[in-house]
Amino acid sequence: MEKAINERIEKWKKENTTDNKEVTNENAYESITELILDGKKFNTIKSEDIELLKNFKNLERLCLNQTGIQNLGSMPTMESLTVLELTDNHLSTVDILKHITTSFPNLKTLEIGGNHFKNIKDFETLKDLKQLTRLGVQFNPFSEDSNYRKELFEVLPDVKIIDCYNKDGVEVLSSDEEDDEEEYEEEDNTLKNFYEADFKEEDDEDEEFVPNDNEDEDDDELDDDLEEEEIEELNKEEDFDGETKDSENAPKEEKNNKRKQDALENNDNETDTKKTKVE
Bias regions of kind Basic and acidic residues — which residues (predicted)? Predict the structure, then answer.
């Protein structure tokens, strides 16, 4: 933890050093209001760490999320601290909650979810934090009970929000989440204004398309008329083909009939000839 704190101090000094102004560790201790050490791995808070933390007289927010700590050691009293984040660690005992109460008496927000607390009653010790209004405890073993918020509100009646929900079950965003949402809306509006300005002229040139139901009806009627005309034409063609075939077949029939008639006449003539010879 000591190394992580010193890195934060050096970063602040680098950001605030100018050609005409040189900053010191003392300046950093007085100016730094947030100490975010998320993800820095240290299991315990040592005496050296405690001595360093004592120097931050105006620290308002301390974040030790995902650091792997199992206890808080002998944390100094930090009356300026209003936000403490200890999520996703290995904290589990009521003594830790008692230590939080004594070391940070003006705490308004405590995020301690993702640890190993099993008993809701252990949190009753947080009653001594008179300004505590927001509490995060999700992903502790006791939070598997669907009624855990209701029970916690009964144990801590002065707390207003537990895991982003108030006593009425209404979701309430934190200030950071509200800032993120406002920033997103601003970006969204900026992008929207850009597109509207960029394509306004093109949109004005385009004629608005208005569907015309009458046109669809006219198209249907036209299709029906065309179908009827096509059918009539086909019928005419069939009649014409039939007449053509009849006219083509007529001479043939006439010729055949003439042949039959000639054959009959020849037969009659032959018969008459035979009769004459006999006589």
Answer: 242-263
Domain spans of the chain, in order of start: 2-181, 221-279
The predicted model scores a pTM of: 0.63
| Chain segment 17-73, per-residue pLDDT in tens | 887 888 899 999 999 999 999 999 887 888 889 999 999 999 999 999 999 999 988
Tell which CATH classification among 3.30.390.60, 3.40.50.620, 3.80.10.10, 3.90.320.10 matches the domain 2-181. 3.80.10.10
3-state secondary structure of 167: coil
For residue 73, how many other CB atoms are within 10 A of its CB? 15
- CA 78-83-87 angle, 5° bins: 110
> What's the Cα-to-Cα distance from 29 to each of 25, 43, 187, 237, rounded to whole Å?
6, 24, 35, 105
Rounded Cα–Cα distance for residues 58 and 139 (Å)? 31
Task: Look at residues 72, 136, 79 and name the one whose alpha carbon lies nearest to residue 98.
Answer: 72
Cα-atom radius of gyration of the chain, to the nearest Å? Answer: 50
